[in-house]
Amino acid sequence: AHVEGRLAEGVRRKQMRRKINHLLWLWLVLITQSVSPLGLPSSSSSSSLLTETPASNKPPARLQLCPEAIERTLLKARRRQEEEAKNTKIWRTARGVEMPDDDKKLCEVLDAFLSTVEWELETEDSIADLQSLSFEVYQRAHFLNPLNPEYDVRLGMLAMSTNRMEEARSFFERALRLCPDHPVALCQIAMMKEAAGEVQEACDLVERASTKSPNDTNVLGELARLNKKLNRYDRSLQLYQESLCLQPDNMDTMSNYAALLSSMKSKGFVTPEDPQEVFNRILKMNPSQLETICNYAIYLRDEKDDLEGATFLLEKAVRANPDCHRIYHPLAQCYLKAKDFKTAEEALLHALQLVPSDTQMLGAFLSFPQGSIQDLEQASERINQASLERPADDELSAVRAWFYLSHLNDKEEAELTMEKAIGRDPTNVHLAVEFGQILLESRQDGAEAAEAVFRNAVFRHPDDPYAHCCLANICWMFRRDKTQAAVHYNKALELDPSFQLARKNYDEMINGTEVHVSSLLN
């Protein structure tokens, strides 16, 4: 009797779960039917899930969730579901897409609808409220089916879009507990580990994702990028070639492949193709491909020493796409190399009007020589505003510290900024290295403190070549301990044979001493 009761309970739960899934589908149908593409109420809807301002030709400035309307709609949906249960083809969105029975396809349909609506919204407040609505939808979906990792992945992506990184991490980790090899969750966790300086761990996670999705060009491209960052050029080259075999017309992959060839050639590696020929081939297929234009301009500027050609290419792209912020960073670097600091500053400030908190644009101010920034107040205001918006952004903290040190000569604020960042993330090797360098620059007796920071970084991250190089610099230049310096220089070069700074410093140290090279290599 006990077993029969358990079996009957299982059948009832299965039937209830099926009804709840159908109820969720119908609820999503009502969402799409009661909200027009611009976020305005449709005339056929008697009750809306959103409350908004009266009818207007423009989207409302603010959209607010209405829980009471949601509950009323759920009750109405229950009655409609009972009436229309015989006809399974009623599960369609307002876009005419048939609702599948699969939860994963449910996510794909909802993603398509929400992305379509987002592109049609005009104000930032409306987009923010659409994200809030999306979060509410997926939270309800997760409540109805907590064993589906797709909902956790979508919730994590939405949390990342609003810079709630810790919350996003918890969603992705929960998805991985349900599905340990979920490729999207693995790649997103890998991205967070990369930001924390754990590039090898990030690469291992993406490698796991690639075994689950061997034909996913996005995963292959991410894995190739991380291998390039780890100086595994042969592996990166192989992955890009595999990705191009699967999708030969993917312009982004082709552009990244050409950029890899450029890096390999600059470091003395033999490449299967000439980078310039690949860039020209891509631009012949699509002359307006911005990623390729930027990479090609960087190649001309840095490898071919064709500053004029790179500047012409980027200026032409800016005229065709004045609102594309990605072009302005390499263009500003071209102006800086030509010592046209005023035009470089104008390019960066214009880009920051498009993306006010872009870390790469803000970091470009560090390339200016001291005293060459004309509007120093506006530049510092931009950096401080971005730091207030993203207080947990480690890279931005480093940018702010160096800006205060090099341009405002505020050593105390620079050290305080880095101490706060280290306190938030004590295991981040990049922050540790930056903090040690700032201590060297800001204090007359900073070598001892910097050495302690670098030794801790080497202890925590023994496979990081830059940490070894920094510690070697301290040993050689400040403590005059050439034996210890040689150990760490050699370790850095063993980890990264193309590390030019470590090679240069090591050669200078060897040339200035009578110690035999072979003994140091041992």
Automatic annotation (TrEMBL):
Region (Disordered): 42-62
Lineage top rank: taxon: Eukaryota
Pfam families tied to this protein: TPR_16, TPR_19, TPR_8
Alphabetical keyword list: Membrane, TPR repeat, Transmembrane, Transmembrane helix
TPR repeats: 149-182, 217-250, 325-358
Transmembrane segment boundaries: 22-40
Similarity remark: Belongs to the APC3/CDC27 family.
Protein name: Uncharacterized protein
Lineage: Eukaryota, Cryptophyceae, Pyrenomonadales, Geminigeraceae, Guillardia
